[in-house]
Design goal:
Layout (H helix, E strand, L loop, with lengths): L2 H8 L9 E9 L5 E8 L5 H13 L9 E5 L10 H10 L5 H14 L5 E16 L5 E22 L4 E4 L4 E4 L4 E3 L4 E5 L1 E3 L2 E3 L2 E6 L7 H8 L7 H16 L5 H20 L7 E2 L1 H10 L10 H9 L5 E2 H4 L5 E4 L4 E4 L7 E6 L2 E6 L5 E3 L2 E3 L3
Antiparallel strand pairs: 1-2, 1-4, 3-12, 4-5, 5-8, 5-9, 6-7, 9-12, 10-11, 13-14, 15-16, 17-18, 19-20
Helix pairs in contact: 6-9
């Protein structure tokens, strides 16, 4: 799914456009015991409650694609003989009316979800009458070719509110506040099926993780049956290791700066073309990036092998995860220099009086701890 498709689904999470018919859930305590369960018709719930639910559902589809939101494809074997995809499809088709299926779903989560403390499992069923679009991308509300039927699952931590004081309007007194268990924003969740090309795609699932570095691999493997992709941080770390291993002793400042500049140039070109899909780089494209940045051919001889050993065969890396478009940073044990990534030309390495130095060109304005000083 791309951002516009995710946004289209999120726009249903309000009282004017709501397509949710059922909401089910269960509360799991710190000992992994299910304490209570419920299933309700969503539109029959009080408006002040549904408003809070909408906030949770929107959060489950928030964040960046490739970081917090992961498009995952089901392995073929999960679609047959009691596989994970087949089970989720049965749950979707039941419209949350089958209590046995719901109980099995809850148990699958409890058994695979690693979490310290209590949490709430929420799952909704919705049927979205997909409006057509004109050539200039305007919605045609009276034209629809498909009903997109989906489930959205949100897993939310439940924590005891902090102790404190409160004002009691009945007694007109300040007194100790009553602590209660509060449902927080979701830490994990998923949307199934996906809404690819504004249509139902039962072969894929959109997974959400609030922490982009803690993807809860056991949960993904056991409940969803999908392989866990590399996290954003791991992709960046792998890319940095590839550069170090490829360059070896020739890992010089100018080449690394060129790689950074070239990568940001590629990302910017992708944005200018207004391509909705995230920019992914495969092995060949990463190799071309290094070559275009000044890495000599003899250093790239064993690159293919290094890439596959670190990432696996046919792996792609999200370009946005590899480079920082906000800052260019140089670091020594005692000094950290942060530069506008568009002005890396201001920083050079030079020999000054026989010493290796980082030289920064300064303009007419220099600040030291917030104080404007006269340039040297």
């Amino acid at each position: 799914m791309i951002n516009s498709e995710i946004s289209e689904i999120k726009k249903q999470f309000n009282h004017e456009n709501c397509s949710i018919t059922k909401v089910s859930g269960c509360y799991v305590d710190g000992d992994k015991e299910i304490k209570t369960k419920f299933t309700e018709s969503f539109l029959c719930m009080p408006e002040e409650e549904t408003f809070k639910y909408f906030e949770i559902f929107k959060k489950t589809l928030s964040g960046s694609i490739g970081k917090n939101l992961m498009n995952m494809e089901f392995p073929t074997e999960t679609e047959f003989n009691g596989g994970t995809q087949e089970f989720l499809l049965k749950l979707r088709d039941s419209e949350l009316k089958n209590e046995e299926l719901l109980d099995e779903f809850y148990q699958k989560i409890v058994q695979s979800y690693e979490f310290v403390g209590s949490y709430l499992i929420l799952v909704i069923y919705a049927a979205y009458d997909v409006p057509g679009k004109t050539k200039d991308k305007q919605f045609m509300e009276d034209s629809s070719d498909e009903v997109y039927r989906y489930i959205l699952c949100s897993i939310c931590p439940v924590k005891l509110s902090k102790p404190g004081l409160s004002y009691n309007t009945d007694t007109n007194q300040i007194q100790k506040r009553i602590q209660d268990w509060v449902v927080g924003t979701p830490t994990n969740g998923f949307l199934f099926p996906t809404f690819n090309d504004r249509s139902t795609d039962i072969h894929n699932i959109l997974y959400y993780s609030k922490d982009s570095e803690e993807l809860n691999s056991e949960f993904v493997n056991q409940l969803l049956g999908c392989g866990v992709p590399m996290s954003a941080g791991l992709q960046k770390e792998t890319f940095q290791t590839l550069i170090r291993d490829t360059l070896g002793e020739e890992c010089e400042y100018e080449i690394v700066k060129n790689i950074h500049d070239k990568l940001n140039e590629i990302i910017e070109e992708h944005k200018m073309k207004e391509i909705p899909e995230p920019l992914l780089l495969d092995k060949t494209e990463v190799k071309a990036l290094l070559s275009d940045s000044g890495v000599v051919e003899e250093k790239l001889i064993e690159f293919d092998q290094h890439f596959e050993e670190m990432t696996g065969v046919n792996t792609t890396l999200l370009a946005a995860n590899l480079a920082s478009t906000r800052v260019f940073e140089l670091k020594t044990p005692d000094v950290v220099i942060k530069v506008n990534p568009e002005r890396t030309d201001l920083v050079q390495t030079k020999l000054v009086e026989g010493r290796k130095c980082i030289v920064i060109e300064i303009t007419d304005e220099v600040e030291v701890n917030g104080i404007v000083v006269k340039p040297i």
